[in-house]
Structure formats: structure tokens, C-alpha cells
Design brief:
This protein has 226 residues and is mainly α. The protein has two domains: 91 residues, DNA polymerase, domain 1; 78 residues, hpI Integrase, Chain A, CATH 1.10.443. The chain is built from nine helices and three strands, in the order H-H-H-H-H-H-H-H-E-E-E-H. It has a three-stranded antiparallel β-sheet, with no helix packed on it. A hairpin with an 8-residue loop joins strand 2 and strand 3. Helix 1 packs across helix 3 and helix 2 runs antiparallel to helix 3. The protein is elongated. The model has no long low-confidence stretch (mean pLDDT 84).
Length: 226
């Protein structure tokens, strides 16, 4: 069997010039090559494009702060950078975690050794979820949004779906008779079932007739996107 060589390589969308990553590409010499390598290796190693985007933004901010690439930044400088983020009340704990994760992943995937950076331990904080009352939910669902947007909110809230899971939801994954929805490759790339509310069944069927979607439940200008 003759295997044809690959000639059309996948091309990622370049970050906007006004974004933090875009600014680092323009201002830091060598950052574009580093970013391309980081993105390529993250995707190959099973990270999502959203995780890459968040990590790349944190790495870009680090480089912009010191005006150079990570390989030229000392461990003490990185510690001071993390301390500034930790003590900045305007930045969330999740942003700090993303920065730690981004630097750690960059070192691991792009081979910044022999230098080894000992990153701080991130304690797990358990918080109770915010639960809306029936009155609050009804107010959201009856808001001035269009029919499709109302359905997106109802499906997401009813099944506890993430935005990416709503975007990738297909009709084949909805079991009307079994009253369940199959979520493919959700968090940690695991499949799971969620309950399909009886109230949503006629609304989803009506939605399908109105928008005449064939594969994805909710489609924007690009299939799989809202």
C-alpha cells in the first residue's frame, strides 16, 4: 500500500494583535516560535485548545513583564512574578492556578531543562455551587433572548453542561425514548450520560423543525459553534 505524503498541514488561527498573546508575538523576539511549539506539543499531548489558550496567555504575560523569553528569566524572578499575581486582589485564584499550570507545562513540554522550577502547591478549595431558585431560572428562560438562545440555556442548565459540551452536542447523542443525553469526551475526555428533562423533549423537537439542523443541535456560522 502506498501512503501519500501529508502536504496540507493544519493551520491554527493566529491570536488577535490586541490580545496579550498577540502583543507578546509582536514585542518579544522568538516568542512566535516558542508559542507555535508550545501549542503544537500541547495539542499532541492531549490538552484542549482552550487550555492552551489560557496557558499561552499566562506565558505571554510573563514574557511581556520581563521583556524576554522564559529561558532568560531566573527562578527568583518567576517566584516574584507569581507572588505579585497571588497578592493582586483584582486577579482570581483560578488565574494564579492557570499561570502555575502554564509555566509548569511549558517547562515539561518544551524542554527548558536542566533548569527545574519548583512550582507552588495549589490547595483544592471546596465551594458549594450557586443554585438558582425556580423563579430566577424562569426569569432567565423567559428573557428577551431568541428561541435558540433560550434552548441553549435550558439544555445547559438542565443537564449541567459546559459551553463546549453544548457546542458539540449532536442529535444522535439525544435519546428521547430513554430520556438521556450522551456527553462525548467531556471533562477529562470522559463520556457520561445526563438526564433529559421531560419538559425539554417537545421543545427540542420543535427547535429541530424550526432550525432544520441535521447534525449539531445548536449551530452558528461554523458547525459545532454557537
Amino acid at each position: 500500500m502506498i501512503i501519500e505524503p501529508m502536504v496540507n498541514h493544519y493551520k491554527f488561527k493566529e491570536p488577535a494583535e490586541n490580545s496579550i498573546t498577540g502583543q507578546a508575538i509582536m514585542k518579544i523576539e522568538g516568542f512566535r516560535l516558542l508559542n507555535d511549539e508550545f501549542r503544537r506539543k500541547m495539542i499532541i499531548n492531549g490538552y484542549s485548545i482552550n487550555t492552551y489558550t489560557n496557558y499561552a496567555r499566562c506565558i505571554a504575560l510573563l514574557c511581556l513583564n520581563f521583556g524576554t523569553l522564559p529561558e532568560n528569566i531566573t527562578n527568583v524572578e518567576i517566584e516574584m512574578f507569581l507572588l505579585d499575581i497571588k497578592m493582586n486582589k483584582k486577579l482570581s485564584e483560578s488565574y494564579f492556578k492557570q499561570t502555575v499550570g502554564g509555566i509548569s507545562t511549558l517547562c515539561k513540554l518544551t524542554g527548558l531543562s536542566p533548569r527545574k522550577i519548583k512550582m507552588p502547591r495549589i490547595p483544592r478549595i471546596e465551594k458549594l455551587p450557586l443554585v438558582l431558585s425556580k423563579k430566577e431560572c424562569r426569569k432567565i428562560f423567559l428573557s428577551g433572548a431568541c428561541t435558540k438562545h433560550k434552548m441553549i440555556l435550558m439544555v445547559a442548565y438542565s443537564g449541567g453542561l459546559r459551553l463546549s459540551e453544548v457546542c458539540s452536542l449532536k442529535w444522535r447523542d439525544i435519546d428521547f425514548s430513554g430520556k438521556r443525553i450522551l456527553i462525548r469526551a467531556g471533562k477529562n475526555r470522559r463520556d457520561r450520560y445526563v438526564v433529559l428533562s421531560t419538559l425539554l423533549i417537545p421543545l427540542l423537537k420543535q427547535h429541530r423543525k424550526i432550525y432544520e439542523t441535521s447534525e449539531y443541535v445548536f449551530c452558528g456560522s461554523v458547525p459545532g459553534n454557537l
